[in-house]
Structure prediction request, 427 residues.
Amino acid sequence: MSRPRSGSSAKSFLKENSLTILTVIGVCTGSAVGIILKHNTGEWSKRDIMYIAFPGECFLRMLKCLIVPLLVSSITSAIGSLDLSMSGRIATRAIIYYFITTLCAVVLGIMLVTTIKPGHVGKVDEFMTEDVEKNSKVLTPDTLMDLVRNMFADNIIQATMFQYRTEIIQPKNITLKDAPMEEWDFSGKQKTGSNVLGLVMFSIVLGTTIGRMKEQGKLLQDFFAVLSEAMMIITSWVIWLSPIGVGFLITGKILEMQSLLLVVQQLGWYFLTVMLGLFLHGFGTIAIIFFLGTRRLPYGYVAKLSQVLATAFGTGSSSATMPLTIKCLDGMGIDPRVTRFVIPVGATINMDGTALYEAVAALFIAQYRRVSYSFGTVIAVSITATAASIGAAGIPQAGLVTMVMVLDTVGLPAKDVSLIIAVDWLL
Prediction:
């Protein structure tokens, strides 16, 4: 009876997981290089940082270029290939799952921040504040209505490049003390950035229509199926650049930070509260839901998605990692008809991390400012943070925009976002 050779097993393991291992090495190398350069060379100019991060920026642009064609083709072909009763069940279960996990994340975050009370520990200096007033004039009703408006794009071509946003226009020589923001003028503008929510809605409707057309829609169904497959082949080429791209992105981000040690000292408890919440939600709440649904432990699947996690950390964008996620799940044998629908929709509306982060941040700032809040305020923060996370774009630091409406719920000024801006990217 022959024994399995350990050498061949090791080679097989390295071959199967080479990209993941290289990506993790890229993350570690980028972090180490950034810390060494920061420690030994002092302050870096914005231009020098741009040069360092340039390869990573190119990698991020490649990923973003794939988002729109992959999203539209994958959702349309997935919905079109399902029978209507099956697509309805998948959609219903997916939306319920997304809502439950987001709500669990918010509740967990609020429980931790009210227990640990990070805002009562230490002192956040004003060195890390920035002028966010000019970008933060927003009302909660406007944000929620913009969310609905973007779901129903009035121009599908325009939706690939722009999204609708209501802007508050401050009258000359008028401040909030003179007149509330609700009385100021407003206008709707198209902001640069793909309207992913509108594209998702259009793709769902188009896929459903093609499915109903049966033989008549077969040609169109084949077109979107082939386009989706072509996008996945291009994605497989791009992901081999991820170790280099992620490494340079992380190095640039570390060099941007004014003082990593000072930030950790001053925002340490807040940082730990958010990290603890993310860890408990990812390896606790979601793991339990996974086990209840499948009767299996999820950690083997998490290990197979480690390359996606490493890339997400480097890019800070859930949308950018969507092609990688679909590619990994295909390799794990998950039904592509399911992944092509669930992943793009989830990358658009299922922002558990953002929801937890914004709930913790709002109550942390309230604690820091010594502003008391009632149980009703906590409930309001839960609802607002959930709604804000759905409206947040899957791009780096998009949560800062929706954070303003969460702060408004607690009765805090928008400029207080600047208190946590130093660790926003890292979290």
Summary: The radius of gyration is 23 Å. The beta strands are 162-169, 185-192. The longest helix spans residues 46-81. The CA atoms of residues 136 and 414 lie 6 Å apart.
